[in-house]
Amino acid sequence: MPTRSNEQLCRLAQAGDTAARDILLENNLGFIRKIALEQYRSMGLDENDIGIDLEDLVQEGSIGLLNAIPLFDAGRGMKFLTYSAPAIRNAMTDCIRAALAQFEQRMVDKKDGPGFQRVYLDDILSDDERMLRIEAIADPHSRTPEQIYIQKEQLTELYAALDKLTAREQTYLLYRYGFTDGIEHPLIGAALHFHLSESRTKKVEGEAMDSLRGKLPGGSDTMVSSG
């Protein structure tokens, strides 16, 4: 088969050409793997034991791409990868969410085990380490002096507000918004990292953000990442 675009392959696949479908998937495995790696890193899947590896995400993303084929409408002028990317990401997230739910249940059912509530938030940072993270200002390169000044003022206010929170709230927000490792983690990623249920993580985040708003001038809820 001559080289065809994603959109051409998709039209053939929609008409029942299984070879075109397979080629479409093969041609875009690199794209799927890139998304999988981003998800794997941002959700800290290498730091927990829920049983998902990178290849699991690649497989789920591949299924997401295949499921997007019959729904794609080339007449709208959208590229196939642009259309299928949300389906790929959602398939991976659904896989992680299902694995997290199973992990929670295993921990609850484990009578002699520690239980699911291994709240790493309680393993609070030392004062020195916490202050180093709070004081880590983003690299100012490629910004105008005015932008640098405005951001520095905003960061100063943010860091001052963070320092007034409880150590537990600080630990959560510093990880969630990338002060810890330069990666802004999605909520489910924070749930995995702190070994919390997704609903409990939402509650923790809500309480921490409410506290932060109360400490910021004007009650701003803007959270700034470190990188």
From TrEMBL:
One example GO MF annotation: sigma factor activity
Secretion signal, residue range per the UniProt entry: none
Region (Disordered): 205-227
Ranges for domain RNA polymerase sigma-70: 56-69
Protein name: RNA polymerase sigma factor
Cited NCBIfam families: sigma70-ECF (TIGR02937)
Keyword vocabulary terms for this entry: DNA-binding, Sigma factor, Transcription, Transcription regulation
Pfam families noted in UniProt: Sigma70_r2
GO terms, biological process: DNA-templated transcription initiation
